[in-house]
């Protein structure tokens, strides 16, 4: 199994109510990673090079989406991993969890329309030097589906100015946003650039059978970055 | 001790739920200028010390019950301890 030894290991966390964990794992495997399932009640993360918090409705979205998942035992490990510079990608509900956990700025609110939106979204890549967008060209247009009821990204004027100035807006909706997000924000990175929250679902856009394969650019970038991390001596 | 926490969308924060409620009330013929929708959390605390309970409730709000970016909160302690 020597070829498997070179596969970067990427954790995919399952919370009660996660429902995109399997698609995320499948997409990562197709893109050359070994997806490592991790249960929310685990006290720590296994030895991995990246972590994906998948979409879904963790803890039923009770109180506020993502507000309860943030207290799951595994989040201690995720927090420590992110603080060490580890790569963390939160997709949809995962994005909501990362915001509530304070790993990303801002918050996701109910869609402006109050309707659940489920459709392809046109996106523009704003930053290509992140570990999540390195396979994209600057300004590249992507088509990746969204499916959420609470994807309206909000930051107050001061915070928005701050994240814009520090180049933390990685991906924006092209044209009218599906949810009323401020500044059409679809994806935000933290200051260090090792954590990305993304409302659209790249894991649902990797197979031509279901339409666009642009999601592979995002997840492929993550796998590339994870492989690079993997090659460092810390990996066993 | 019983306590109630009221969580509201902060002033200036867009509240589509409130707008929808206002619209429906207007359709029913009520002259409603604005509506904002928040959340009520009723709690029963083991603590009987009002000071301590209030401090504890503040921490609950900061850590979980409200998101300070978008929500304000108000704590009401029941009079009869």
SSE arrangement:
The complex is a heterodimer of chains A (236) and B (81).
Chain A: H1 2-5, E1 9-14, H2 21-30, E2 34-39, E3 50-53, H3 74-83, E4 87-91, H4 93-100, E5 107-109, E6 117-125, E7 141-148, E8 152-154, H5 157-165, E9 169-173, E10 185-189, E11 195-198, H6 215-230
Parallel strand pairs in A: 1-2, 1-3, 3-4, 4-11
Antiparallel strand pairs in A: 5-8, 6-7, 6-9, 9-10, 10-11
Chain B: E1 2-9, H1 16-27, E2 39-44, H2 50-65, E3 71-77
Antiparallel strand pairs in B: 1-2, 1-3
Describe this structure in words.
Chain A has 236 residues and is α/β, with parallel strands linked by helices. In chain A, 24% of the residues lie in helices and 25% in strands. Chain A has helices at residues 2-5, 21-30, 74-83, 93-100, 157-165, 215-230, and strands at residues 9-14, 34-39, 50-53, 87-91, 107-109, 117-125, 141-148, 152-154, 169-173, 185-189, 195-198. A 9-stranded mixed sheet of chain A has the order 2-1-3-4-11-10-9-6-7, with helices on both faces. The longest helix of chain A is centred in the last third of the chain and has 16 residues, at 215-230. The model of chain A has no long low-confidence stretch (mean pLDDT 94). The model of chain B has no long low-confidence stretch (mean pLDDT 94). Chain B contains 2 helices and 3 strands. The longest helix of chain B has 16 residues, at 50-65. Chain B has 81 residues and is of the alpha+beta class. Chain B has a 3-stranded antiparallel sheet, with helices on one face. The A-B interface holds A 63-64, 67, 71, 100, 106-107, 109-114, 154-156, 159, 180 and B 13-14, 16-17, 20, 64-65, 67, 69-70.
């Amino acid at each position: 199994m020597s070829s498997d030894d070179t596969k970067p290991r990427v954790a995919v966390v399952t919370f009660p109510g996660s429902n995109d964990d399997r698609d995320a794992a499948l997409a990562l495997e197709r893109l050359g990673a070994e997806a490592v399932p991790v249960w929310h009640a685990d006290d720590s993360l296994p030895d991995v090079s990246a972590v994906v918090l998948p979409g879904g409705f963790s803890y039923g979205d009770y109180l506020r989406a993502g507000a309860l998942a943030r207290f799951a035992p595994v989040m201690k490990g995720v927090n420590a991993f992110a603080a060490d510079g580890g790569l963390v990608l939160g997709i949809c509900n995962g994005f909501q969890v990362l915001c509530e956990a304070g790993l990303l700025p801002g918050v996701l609110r109910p869609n402006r329309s109050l309707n659940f939106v489920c459709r392809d979204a046109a996106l523009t890549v704003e930053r290509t030097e992140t570990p999540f967008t390195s396979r994209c060209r600057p300004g590249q247009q992507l088509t990746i589906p969204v499916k959420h009821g609470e994807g309206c990204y909000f930051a107050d004027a001061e915070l928005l100015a701050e994240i814009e100035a520090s180049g933390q807006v990685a991906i924006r909706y092209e044209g009218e946003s599906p949810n009323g997000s401020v500044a059409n924000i679809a994806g935000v990175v933290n200051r260090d650039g090792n954590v990305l929250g993304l409302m659209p679902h790249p894991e649902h856009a990797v197979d031509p059978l279901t339409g666009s394969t642009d999601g592979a650019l995002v997840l492929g970038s993550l796998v590339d970055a994870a492989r690079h991390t993997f090659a460092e001596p810390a990996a066993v | 001790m019983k306590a109630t926490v009221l969580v509201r969308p902060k002033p200036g924060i867009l509240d589509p739920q409130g707008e929808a409620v206002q619209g429906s009330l207007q359709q029913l013929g009520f002259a409603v200028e604005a509506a904002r929708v928040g959340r009520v959390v009723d709690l029963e605390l083991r603590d009987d010390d009002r000071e301590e309970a209030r401090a504890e409730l503040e921490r609950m709000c900061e850590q979980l019950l409200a998101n300070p970016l978008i929500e304000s909160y108000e704590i009401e302690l029941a009079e009869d301890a």
